[in-house]
Task: inverse folding
């Protein structure tokens, strides 16, 4: 056991095991012995050759990293509990989120589908909106700072964040941030703004869709040169998200998508193309009607029998969830096999039943990310499940044997389930 692993910070936070290391320190799994809960503890190490003035700046930046998310109480930003000075260096105590980062997921699984990326982008826009309204710019949004805990998306690491009310802690001539995700105007030396965070969001979503950020090159200087001199490459896998990505990656910040417009475009992508969807075509059957026409054909002087051929619209028949006693809205759909004993069962009532189902944990397992055809069903027996149904009116859902009420068209439903 190392000396650090024997530490108890501020007489209450015990270091349990190392989670990972970075350029500026180590992240530990810890235990708050006062409140009896798991915590994450970020140990920040100062370089040995750091001058006294720089050491003061480092401490101030550390306190800012803790204060920024502490002011922003929202589901999409990591919660900070405490800051402790121990052994001459700062330690930040945060909520423990045992989930992979977006960077790890991209490295493990490759590019993500547009539906998943849209959900991630929507949550990050909420996080940025909360931060920007409080006057805080993150300045280092990138896949490694985004944690994916099932359906929850969490923005972390506000180490480079600054408040509009605080003095800048970055020295002139010092580049701060991640070159592959930094906005062009910031790389050129301008002050970071909420619009530059939106660029970083665009680069992050681009990386999620394509497997790498748009301007990443073999080294820092080549990356910055590409950022300054090359056109933004069009994403190949974005699908309906292409207008969002290209709008966020507009190099001129005044023409870049605003937060509100980005939200609107992402909402449209999540909802799907409803306004342009054609109404179902009525079914017809050919009806041959034989009628006796009592007219006399003048030229022949005989009676005639005519065949009258017409198209009659066929009755549409009952809806997939309707019964003989009433319409679908007033009745429960017949449960598919296994619904009574499964944690979750989803069956498509239309061809727009889009679902995302995963098992949370340190290594999240994606079970389904698909659109089901009408009548198609999926059954899940895992003891813990996170699920997203993107259109609650398009799917029938059973949770632990009980059918959930049908939702409204376009309504998204999120489920965090434990097997009963």
Result:
């Amino acid at each position: 056991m190392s000396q650090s692993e024997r530490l108890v910070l501020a007489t209450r936070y015990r270091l349990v095991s190392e989670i990972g290391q970075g350029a500026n320190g180590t992240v530990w799994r810890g235990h708050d012995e006062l409140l009896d809960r798991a915590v994450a503890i970020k140990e920040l190490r100062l370089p040995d050759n750091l001058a006294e003035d720089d050491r003061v700046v480092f401490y101030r930046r550390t306190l800012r990293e803790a204060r920024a998310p502490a002011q922003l109480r929202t589901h999409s930003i990591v919660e900070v509990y405490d800051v402790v000075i121990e052994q001459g260096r700062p330690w930040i105590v945060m909520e423990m989120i045992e989930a992979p980062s977006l960077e790890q997921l991209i490295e493990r699984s490759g590019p993500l589908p547009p539906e998943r990326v849209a959900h991630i982008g929507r949550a990050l826009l909420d996080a940025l909106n909360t931060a920007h309204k409080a006057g805080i710019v993150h300045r280092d949004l990138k896949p490694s700072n985004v944690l994916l805990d099932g359906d929850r998306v969490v923005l972390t690491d506000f180490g480079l964040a600054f408040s509009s009310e605080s003095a800048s802690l970055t020295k002139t001539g010092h580049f701060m941030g991640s070159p592959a995700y930094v906005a062009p105007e910031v790389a050129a030396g301008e002050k970071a703004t909420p619009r530059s965070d939106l660029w970083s969001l665009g680069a992050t979503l681009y990386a999620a869709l394509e497997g790498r950020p748009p301007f990443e090159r073999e080294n820092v200087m080549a990356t910055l040169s590409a950022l300054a001199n090359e056109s933004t490459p069009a994403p190949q896998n974005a699908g309906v998200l292409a207008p969002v990505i290209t709008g966020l990656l507009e190099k001129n910040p005044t023409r870049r998508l605003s937060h509100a417009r980005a939200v609107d475009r992402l909402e449209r992508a999540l909802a799907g193309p409803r306004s342009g969807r054609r109404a179902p075509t009525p079914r017809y059957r050919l009806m041959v009607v034989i009628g006796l026409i009592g007219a006399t054909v003048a030229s022949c002087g005989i009676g005639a029998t005519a065949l009258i051929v017409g198209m009659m619209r066929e009755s549409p028949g009952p809806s997939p969830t309707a019964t003989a006693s009433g319409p679908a809205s007033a009745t429960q759909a017949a449960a598919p096999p296994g619904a009574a004993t499964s944690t979750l069962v989803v069956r498509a009532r239309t061809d727009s039943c889009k679902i995302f189902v995963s098992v949370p944990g340190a290594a999240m397992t994606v079970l389904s990310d698909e659109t089901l055809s009408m009548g198609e069903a999926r059954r899940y027996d895992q003891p813990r499940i996170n699920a997203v149904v993107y259109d609650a009116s398009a799917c029938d859902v059973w949770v632990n044997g009980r059918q959930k009420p049908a939702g409204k068209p376009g309504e998204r439903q999120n489920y965090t389930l434990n097997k009963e």
Observations:
- Helices lie at 52-71, 102-109, 114-133, 184-187, 194-210, 220-229, 242-248, 259-271.
- The radius of gyration is 29 Å.
- Confidence is low (pLDDT under 50) at residues 160-175, 274-331.
